[in-house]
């Protein structure tokens, strides 16, 4: 078995699908060939990288159980909120992926999160491109590339954005990070997977892109491509709500924990 296969297998054990994760590998060179120099990864072309995403089951199982475990028996919810602020999800991924890197040793691994930015506020990696290159999701480019639009909420001129759709989950998923293995090289004959194009007509693509760019808060774009599994109503509300207000939506999680403890 190739070393790259062993490393990928170990990563998938640490981030299993049963916990709401998917891992998709690609060559750094395949990604670098598609992005501007400022977004390129400074590694050899055949180095293995793996993009990690969350499936719909993640939030209300893995994340919920972790967040419940962070609240002390006599700790008030307000104290937990003060501890994590607006980003308990971010705190989870920092800890989880940090532990994964330790558990992968002696294999060297580096991680770039979806919330990691350069000093000029540009992302350190384009995860949608990683997703497309690896075959994790199909990326639909704006039909009129470079055309600006007026944001319906802020009324500010913005560039139209492309949309990634997962072959099974449609828009009901989230890219979380890319792991890079500087000393793990993929063989010369390695070919990345290609995600299927579920939106097979210009009309379907235009509808999805319009929903994503102009009505993203209502989440309708997520249903494009006939997904087999979707976010719950709670998750749809969670991801469309300002971060600090999200705590109100999940406060009942901690009532559930107290009920189980007292049972």
Automatic annotation (TrEMBL):
PANTHER family: CYANOCOBALAMIN REDUCTASE _ ALKYLCOBALAMIN DEALKYLASE (PTHR31457:SF2), METHYLMALONIC ACIDURIA AND HOMOCYSTINURIA TYPE C PROTEIN (PTHR31457). Its main location: cytoplasm. CDD domains: MMACHC-like. One of its GO terms (molecular function) is cyanocobalamin reductase (cyanide-eliminating) (NADP+) activity. GO terms for cellular component: cytoplasm. Pfam families: MMACHC. Its cofactor is FAD; FMN. Keywords: Cytoplasm, FAD, Flavoprotein, FMN, NADP, Oxidoreductase. This is Cyanocobalamin reductase (cyanide-eliminating). It comes from the Eukaryota. GO terms for biological process: cobalamin metabolic process. Belongs to the MMACHC family. It is found in: Cytoplasm. Coiled coil: none annotated.
């Amino acid at each position: 078995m190739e070393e790259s296969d062993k490393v990928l297998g170990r990563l998938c054990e640490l981030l299993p699908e049963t916990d709401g994760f998917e891992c998709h590998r690609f060559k750094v060179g395949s990604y670098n060939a598609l992005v501007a120099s400022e977004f390129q990864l400074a590694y050899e072309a055949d180095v293995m990288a793996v993009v990690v995403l969350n499936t719909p089951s993640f939030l209300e199982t893995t994340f919920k159980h972790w967040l419940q475990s962070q609240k002390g028996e006599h700790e008030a919810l307000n104290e937990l909120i003060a501890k994590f602020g607006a980003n308990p999800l971010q705190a989870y991924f920092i800890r989880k992926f940090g532990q994964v890197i330790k558990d992968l040793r002696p294999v060297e691994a580096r991680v770039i999160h979806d919330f990691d930015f350069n000093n000029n506020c540009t992302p350190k990696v384009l995860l949608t491109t990683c997703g497309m290159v690896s075959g994790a999701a199909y990326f639909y480019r704006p039909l009129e590339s470079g055309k600006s639009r007026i944001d319906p909420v802020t009324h500010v001129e913005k560039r139209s954005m492309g949309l990634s759709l997962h072959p099974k989950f449609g828009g009901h998923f989230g890219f979380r990070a890319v792991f890079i293995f500087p000393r793990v090289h993929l063989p010369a004959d390695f070919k990345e997977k290609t995600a299927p194009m579920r939106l097979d007509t210009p009309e379907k693509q235009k509808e999805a892109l319009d929903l994503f760019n102009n009505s993203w808060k209502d989440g309708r774009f997520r249903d494009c491509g006939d997904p087999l599994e979707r976010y719950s109503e709670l998750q749809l509300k969670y991801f469309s709500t300002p971060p600090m207000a999200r705590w109100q939506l999940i406060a009942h999680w901690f009532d559930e924990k107290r009920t189980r403890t007292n049972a």
